[in-house]
Amino acid sequence: MTSRIPYQTLSGTSRLAGVMGWPVSHSKSPRLQGYWLAKYGIDGSYMPLPVEPKNFQAALISLRNLGFSGVNVTIPQKEMAMPECDELSDRARRIGAVNTVTFAKDGRILGDNTDGFGFIENLRQEAPNADFCAGPAVVLGAGGASRAVLFALLDEGSPEIRIANRTRKRADDLAAEINDPRIKVVDWPLEPAALADISLLVNTTSLGMVGQPKLEINLDGLPQTALVTDIVYAPLITDLLAQAQKRGNSIVDGLGMLLHQARPGFHRWFGIDPEVTAELRDFVLSPD
Ligand code: ATR
Fold it and tell me: Which residues form the Quinate/shikimate 5-dehydrogenase/glutamyl-tRNA reductase domain (predicted)?
């Protein structure tokens, strides 16, 4: 018998968390959170929880009753989690979706959305010298990811945000709902003039992702000082990022958003605000 104790040994007081989704097998969260649990030597576990949407409510309540500390919630259950929460953070309410649930000691279910936090923290870490709110931003896309990015940029003090989306009405509806004079809707495809004075260009669409069509964009009008980022992280360097880099613009890939959005949940459930490092990036990207 070996005297070495494997790190995954659990005690009677282990803290438990996981990720609920359907499907959930593609999720990188168990690998990511498992890395931090091992790194910080925490007596806890984080598991994939495949839950059919029809069972979502019962499963959430059961996890609370089983003594879980919390869960991440992924597609298609991010919106379904909203009405199940006893308390929502401001950002979850505004975005209209929950990705991080914490079960409080008194049994209350607390919902948060950390996607916008992850977006901003990624830019801060990867482009510490970029003043991405110095001038206007252009955000491509008007889906769920766009909402999180828009609110985060407004909170960061962005002076103007131009949304461009294939389906114009979706962008118009989103702008009307947010109802902030700093939000403008511009044409898709983008006119070069829309890029002429910006500090930040963000792709929140699925274009450029493995298996999806390419994002066709003319960057001719883009200032060299503008930061370009993509929330797509497969591939890590999308065509948009490669094109921007070639012109001399600073770029930030989308992997860090995924890693940073996981920090608040880990902190609440396991007690440590974990670090996002180059080693973690390699670990999450490497095959299981
Ligand atoms: P998410 O929650 O990840 O943002 P979503 O709500 O499905 O996902 O939004 C996907 C975004 O990618 C939308 O802005 C979508 O544009 P539409 O609103 O016009 O659908 C955009 N998108 C997806 N496929 C696209 C394509 N082939 N061309 C242009 N935009 C596309």
Answer: 137-205
